[in-house]
Write a structure and sequence with these properties.
Helix content is about 55%, strand content about 5%. By secondary structure, it is mostly helical.
Length: about 300
């Protein structure tokens, strides 16, 4: 090993040993740190850096830009820079450097992936075809109706108690959202009907004293993992090719509400988003549909007969 590689690799090996022995990180995590930091070692060798103290923020930005040009995804660059920042914090604590050049360097912004959703026909098929002549069928139909009706998060639905449902006003009181912010949300007629059928079935099973809204047949509150499994089961049963999970029903709620109303602020409130930019990801509309609307409505787009 040449002198340059030794000067760079010895502190890195000490850092990896620290992660494994003192931080008690898994071997898989340590290997990821090693792989990410090794990329910086290669960059240093290519640019004749022989000591970690020599790197400046501009060098780290050049490193990130080089990774981006080589086709590395923004999320991967973000992870790599995080590893480099951690490495430099270790070097600072050990007195091997006097600054952290990666501290203020930001990765390229990752493109926001549009959430996959179910169209209206798929949602109707999923909900209308779910068998409701059993305990489990009634419960699962009510859960899916409520997810789609009110746009709930998985944790929010799992935490609901009977007292959180106001059947007279057709409202649900949600507490367990992000940041524990209370929300009062409307419940549609179909969901109200499904909830009533479910509670009748539950009462017939002798579970009328249970406080949790959704329970197992043994009377225990239904957990988030079980809810995920039940939705996946019904998705497969109805031949939906995309994996059906609770957040996909929330996506469907948001997308369909926006497509019908175009009221971004109202949907933001319903979803419980503190930042409207989070809601804006749902504003994707089918371009062909927009083109048809444009062709039909714009005076200069219409073809002369």
């Amino acid at each position: 090993m040449d002198t340059m590689a030794t000067e760079l690799s010895i502190p890195l090996q000490a850092f990896l040993h620290y992660l494994a022995q003192q931080r008690r990180l898994s071997s898989h995590t340590v290997l990821n740190y090693q792989r990410d930091c090794q990329q910086l070692v290669v960059f240093c060798q290519q640019n004749a850096f022989t000591d970690w103290q020599q790197l400046k923020p501009a060098d780290i930005r050049l490193f990130a830009a080089q990774l981006h040009r080589n086709g590395l995804a923004a999320r991967s660059i973000h992870r790599m820079l995080s590893a480099v920042r951690s490495f430099y914090r270790y070097l600072l604590n050990e007195g091997l450097v006097d600054h952290n050049p990666a501290q203020s360097v930001q990765a390229p912004k990752a493109e926001k992936r549009l959430p996959k959703t179910l169209d209206v026909d798929q949602m109707n098929a999923l909900l209308d075809s779910t068998v409701t002549d059993t305990f489990v069928g009634c419960r699962d139909r009510a859960m899916m109706e409520l997810f789609y009706s009110s746009g709930l998060r998985l944790a929010e639905l799992a935490a609901l108690d009977l007292r959180d449902i106001d059947f007279a006003q057709q409202l649900v009181h949600v507490v367990a959202g992000k940041g524990d912010k209370d929300r009062i949300l409307p419940i549609g007629n179909k969901a109200i009907e499904a909830l009533k059928v479910w509670l009748d079935k539950r009462d017939q099973s002798g579970l009328y004293q249970q406080q949790a809204l959704f329970t197992t047949q043994q009377g225990r509150r239904l957990g988030v993992r079980s809810i995920q499994k039940r939705l996946a089961f019904w998705g497969k049963k109805h031949g939906i090719s995309e994996h059906v999970h609770p957040h996909r029903l929330r996506h469907a709620f948001a997308s369909h509400m926006l497509e019908s109303s175009s009221d971004l602020r109202a949907v933001q409130e319903l979803l419980g988003h503190s930042d409207i930019s989070t809601t804006q990801v749902y504003t994707h509309l089918d371009f062909q549909h927009l083109a048809k609307v444009y062709d039909a409505a714009h005076p200069r787009a219409k073809k002369r007969s």
